[in-house]
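Section 5: illustrative case.
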């Protein structure tokens, strides 16, 4: 209340006041902390997404090397990837997209679609952080772009993919075995990739009990032919060799020849 020329007047004072410098600093500090927390959570989300993207890409690359075990028809696996066609591991990941040297058994590209679109694109060689995958021509694929090591590999050992056993059992329609008298008139031929881009055919004669044993066989679907020289017949079948498992196939002549 003020007095002017003897009269009384009432004046109003604003209840609002400005922020002090300390208050403004505190507000800015809180905003900075909240922003830092938000960025941290956002970065974690981005890293998680990149890790998952990289793992999925690595899984696709590993399947290109050794095939997709889920592709099955009639109880037989269809896809054994690069290994099944070549009989060896790729020297580099580039071999999955481009024929490494005029290989006749190469049936790629084994990577397609968004992972390896076309032409000279090499994006599939890099993880989600743009770092090259580490691959040494064996079972294991490694990503280091996240700052830690992400490893994905094929189960088992190289032996499980390249050096399996295969046994054939040969008999005629009534179950008779070749025995000593007929074993030399039968020859089993197995055609497999030789690991260098060509095929090799291995020949074996059966034992008296009709068994034929092959060793050092790579995974895949392979061709078998059994020639019976006494009758002039040749029976042809396919046999599937799985990683770390001995293959087995019965060859039964349609006639009673023994």
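Designed sequence:
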């Amino acid at each position: 209340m003020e007095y002017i020329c003897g009269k009384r007047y009432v004046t109003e004072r604003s209840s609002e006041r400005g922020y002090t410098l300390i208050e403004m600093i505190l507000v800015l500090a809180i905003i900075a902390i909240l922003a830092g927390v938000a960025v941290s959570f956002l970065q974690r989300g981005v890293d998680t997404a990149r890790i998952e993207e990289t793992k999925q890409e690595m899984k696709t690359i590993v399947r290109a090397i050794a095939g997709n075990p889920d592709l099955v028809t009639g109880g037989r696996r269809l896809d054994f990837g690069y290994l099944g066609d070549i009989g060896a591991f790729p020297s580099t990941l580039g071999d999955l997209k481009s024929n490494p040297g005029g290989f006749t058994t190469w049936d790629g590209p084994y990577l397609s679609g968004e992972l390896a679109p076309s032409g000279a694109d090499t994006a599939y060689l890099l993880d989600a952080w743009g770092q090259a995958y580490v691959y040494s021509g064996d079972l294991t694929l490694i990503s280091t772009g996240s700052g830690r090591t992400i490893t994905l590999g094929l189960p088992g050992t190289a032996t499980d993919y390249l050096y399996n056993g295969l046994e054939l059992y040969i008999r005629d329609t009534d179950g008779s075995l070749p025995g000593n008298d007929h074993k030399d008139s039968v020859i089993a031929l197995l055609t497999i990739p030789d690991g260098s881009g060509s095929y090799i055919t291995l020949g074996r004669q059966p034992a008296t009990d009709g068994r034929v044993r092959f060793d050092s066989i790579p995974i895949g679907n392979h061709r078998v032919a059994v020639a019976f020289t006494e009758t002039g017949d040749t029976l042809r079948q396919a046999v599937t060799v799985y990683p770390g498992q001995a293959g087995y196939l019965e060859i039964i002549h349609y006639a009673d020849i023994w």
